[in-house]
């Protein structure tokens, strides 16, 4: 998964392969406004440590996460990959 600081894949870009409990601590990013999910299914959370409101993402391009969340989320601060339990 590639996360971007700004909408339309702008600003800082970081690639994730695993969970991130705090984007600010790990990447020095205070927010994520767009992303490209290359593989797997993910949950993005409003607060660090996988807390607060969340947004489910499957593979695809997400140019504006705020628009997609319908303004219900003020920011995204942590990300967790959904793993198969098989």
TrEMBL record:
The keyword Repeat applies. Signal peptide: none annotated. Belongs to the beta/gamma-crystallin family. It holds the Pfam family Crystall. InterPro entries: Beta/Gamma-Crystallin, Beta/gamma_crystallin, G_crystallin-like. This is Beta/gamma crystallin 'Greek key' domain-containing protein. One of its GO terms (molecular function) is structural constituent of eye lens. SMART domains: XTALbg. Keywords: Eye lens protein, Repeat. Residues 1-39, 40-83 form the Beta/gamma crystallin 'Greek key' domain.
